[in-house]
């Protein structure tokens, strides 16, 4: 019973490089989210999706793009990484929007 | 402007005693509140929630109290156990008006339960 799986778990990027973080959920949830967690800042919403083929901006969307081509997958892209994007990224999914969400184990990204 | 505030970054409690974690909010449109627990190097896990139409919800050792007039909620853990040592996040939901709900998190409180 995997729940929400994030790939990769760790990554180091050089400034200006691009990468994609993959999130997969096996609970048939409609809603999926990408958060970032920074020291002393709690969790902040980057982008979210209310269903296959839909995406929307959250609180801190700049510098990120997302896609939800399949219901079970939610991809987060960084086109040109910056040191300010050094963070821990969490993907989550939920059956009902704004209610109990299940989180992945996180991706620790360092941009040097 | 921080809408969900957890003013205590850390809390230490003796094993067997009660742990009380507090959360204040400013947005009167919040209608649902949740608590998450997070261990190091893991994702947050849902703990307990409460609707704004209630003032108490209990699940085993965990009880959440909501005081709407004071815009305050608290999480009580009785009795506290060493395995409860984690960071606890308070979160609140509101309708964004743009066709979606928004979940806003506090900054978290690190609970340490001392054996």
Give the count of helical stretches of chain A.
0
Biggest interface found = A-B, 25 and 26 residues
Low-confidence stretches of chain A: none
How is the biggest beta sheet of chain B arranged?
6 strands, mixed
> Please, what is the average pLDDT of chain B?
94
Largest sheet: number of strands, sense, barrel closure of chain A: 7 strands, mixed
Beta content of chain B: over 45%
H/E element order of chain A = EEEEEEEEEEE
> What Rg of chain A, in angstroms, do the CA atoms define?
13 Å
The helix content of chain A is under 10%
The helix/strand order of chain B is EEEEEEEEEEE
Please state the overall shape of chain A, judged from the principal axes of the Cα atoms. globular
The radius of gyration of chain B is 14 Å
Could you give the topology of this structure?
The complex is a heterodimer of chains A (112) and B (115).
Chain A: E1 4-7, E2 10-13, E3 19-25, E4 31-38, E5 42-49, E6 56-57, E7 65-67, E8 73-78, E9 87-94, E10 101-103, E11 107-111
Parallel strand pairs in A: 2-11
Antiparallel strand pairs in A: 1-3, 3-8, 4-5, 4-9, 5-6, 7-8, 9-10, 9-11
Chain B: E1 4-5, E2 10-14, E3 19-25, E4 32-38, E5 45-51, E6 56-59, E7 62-67, E8 72-77, E9 86-95, E10 101-105, E11 109-114
Characterise the protein shown here.
The complex is a heterodimer of chains A (112) and B (115). Chain A is mostly beta strands. The mean pLDDT of chain A is 94. In chain A, strand 5 (42-49) and strand 6 form a beta hairpin. Chain A contains no helices and eleven strands. In chain A, the strands form two sheets. In chain A, strands 2, 4, 5, 6, 9, 10 and 11 form a seven-stranded mixed β-sheet that branches. The mean pLDDT of chain B is 94. Chain B is globular. In chain B, the strands form two sheets. In chain B, strands 2, 4, 5, 9, 10 and 11 form a six-stranded mixed β-sheet that branches. Helix content of chain B is 0%, strand content 57%. Chain B has strands at residues 4-5, 10-14, 19-25, 32-38, 45-51, 56-59, 62-67, 72-77, 86-95, 101-105, 109-114. The chains are: A mainly beta (112), B mainly beta (115). At the A-B interface, strand 5 and strand 10 of A face strand 4, strand 5, strand 9 and strand 10 of B.
